[in-house]
From TrEMBL:
Residues 1-17 form the signal peptide. Coiled coil: none annotated. Homodimer. This is Outer membrane lipoprotein Blc. Belongs to the calycin superfamily. Lipocalin family. It comes from Microbulbifer echini. Residues 33-172 form the Lipocalin/cytosolic fatty-acid binding domain. Keywords: Cell outer membrane, Lipid-binding, Lipoprotein, Membrane, Signal. Involved in the storage or transport of lipids necessary for membrane maintenance under stressful conditions. Displays a binding preference for lysophospholipids. It is found in: Cell outer membrane. SUPFAM superfamilies: Lipocalins.
Amino acid sequence: MKLLSMCLLLFPLMLLSACTRVPEGVEPVQNFQLQRYLGHWYEIARLDHSFERGLTLVTADYSLNPDGSVAVVNTGYSKGRDAWQMAEGRAKFVGAEDVAHLKVSFLGPFYSSYIVIALSDDYKYSMVSGYDKSYLWILSRTPTMPKPVLDEFLQKAKAMGFPVDQLIFPAQEAQPGNKPSVQPST
């Protein structure tokens, strides 16, 4: 009975830690410089998930919190609802701060992996994975990405085993009015 009780206590912890793992065949960017990564990013492509379904004009803003964690503000426009949606979160490094493996939370104590798996030398283009290969985002500092850079990222993602044929390329056209402020609440 004691073993069963211990297993019941450990199982949720194992599930939570599984959400911050690195998928097999994927490596976080090394020599990562957080200060250079902070700022505004446009979502060029993503694998579909319910929390972003139907959103266009998706952006992410990263800034440093006083405690050293990263404030994350994601925004996107839902044409179906004719409204902006915003999610605020917090990210922390899983290990060394020069390895681009962070954990991000939008729901209190529950974290999931945020792994930068490709990054241009000038920090203009980035590819991010979650804890498994059903999560993938391609980001750019501008609303568009040069085709050669996009093709290179798609080849890398395919070689790592991501289902690139399932990527969604959300529109980044002119933005409707009343976009929410991207300043994180403190």
